[in-house]
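ok trying this again, last paste got cut off
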Amino acid sequence: MPRGGFALVTLLAGSLALAPPAPAAESVTVRLGRFSQTVSLDDLQRFAATGEVPGALQLYRPLLTTGLQEALQGEITLEPEVGQVILDEILRTPGGAQLLDTLRAIAPNLAAEDLRVTLEQVSAAESGLTLLGILQAMPPDTLEINVVTLLSLASQFRLAQMESKALSRVLRQAPEPEASTPLPLPSVDPFTLGSSQVERWELVMRDHSRDRSIPVDIYWSKDTHGPLVVISHGFGADRRFFAYLAEHLASHGLTVVAVEHPGSNVSALLSLPSANSPSANSPPGDMPLGDLTEAAAQSRVLPATEFLDRPRDITYVLDRLEKLNRHSYSLRDRLNTDQVSFIGHSLGGYTGLALAGAALDLRSLESYCQTLNPVNLSPADWLQCAALDLPVKYANLRDDRITQLVVANPLTGLLFGEAGLSRVRVPTLMLTGTHDTVTPMASQQLRPFMQLSGTKHLLTVLGGSHLSVGDPNNLNADLARIPFMPALPDATTTPLRVFLQGVSLSFVMQQTDEAEAYAWALDPSSVTAFSTTALSMRLTQTVPEGLASWPRLHQTLNRQAGLGSYLPSLLHLEAKAIQDQFQAVQRQMVTYLRTTPPSLTVVYLPFLIPTAPMQANRSKPNQATP
């Protein structure tokens, strides 16, 4: 999967989602030091279409791989309106300015304005735009490529891929979890649908003080008991992202309230003003692109105010639910707002952590965002840096009614400072995926998990992506089409979603008198039945053995990983993988010896067979032997 600067370049391609009416660039000049060669785009087109290497490209045969062929001809589709806004974001924000600096280092004769000209030249088309189509649409007749810079960036990208694969090997080779004590026969099955008849009510709660309308879905039944469950979606999603989970929990007698955040839901993303709109805070037309003023740098994709408004949405909804619990004829005594289990995905995970006691602290984030490495830039960095537009650098958004957290692929980074998550003392279940390129597991989940102070569980999904836990029937199709955020097939993610249903229910029920009956589902061995080859899972209460000392988890938070950081990281992971292989062989040998005792065979060797003189000597013990 693409990540970092290459992910954003791919996103740039996808954001156009258009095809040029007439090619502008006809060739590419490749420079390596003083050496240069001009390559026709027609030759690249022939290679992309057939895989054959034309004579003019023979020098570059080692670089013309199948992967490059697929990248040149692969089509990327994305809603044009969304793509236009994201491209504007790249061209206007500090993170985008750094990406443009990187593109200029790769292509010295490519001006930032050329990207705008390309946008003006292209028009909507039925098929998605290819990387080759972008090259052909560039205004310069010849696009110049600096191979040294390109190879440096490609090397770092390749090292990131190698690190991700090595991490997956380490986790996959870990021994299968065993029950610490023999598990009793379960009296309840949290993984199957409950017997309660579920009703879903749709409400819109109007917060006049913030001029904000908050849609909510309430799932409840006549058998309601236990804590109230509140669900918060991620960026660009809606309150139905976890609909399957809400229905499952409600079928077991819990009341569930799914909240939709109006400033960062899918509707807000699709209704963003264009760059030319007065409300878009566009810079003056004669302002150089690199001279970004504070107003021009503000993010429109994710308004900074969402980092304050999202937790406040939850607090406001809980205040309103308290009143409904007292005065509503149908919902009276069904909304236990004194004991709230919070479930959040991605930006919803940030929301829950902020409500559980982690104060928003941007003092470390500012220096980090000013020195972003575009090659390693992940969408999580882009999103968290949007918070710098807030007029405050510190905010305590805690709500003591939150007594539990379930956070899947949470966005954390430096939003809470370097140790802010140590203030989260409520029991927490955190889910992370090894193939999550939106909120990478090392910086966004594993390191934050180590800081949590309360009882905690870590569900690691090998092969899991950012959207693996989403409801297939309610997944935003635009998000699933973004290149670095693909959705896995429904059949692949079904076991994961079933396990998440059961483990979330069991986790919530630990706050009730039925805790013991559900505790077995939180044992590390319970995940074995739901693991598959495609998505293998581990449930632990600590960071997986061997990763606690992983250098990536201990690098300085306010510095991004460079080329030099990958070597110790890779060596650590590869050494751990070899060690695990050796230990696996040892375990197999011990198991074999325990279950299959070696057979005993008596072997008579010729020189040990007693002879006749020896028998004679035995009859005369006092006779000396020669």
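PB: full thing came through this time. The longest strand covers residues 199-207.
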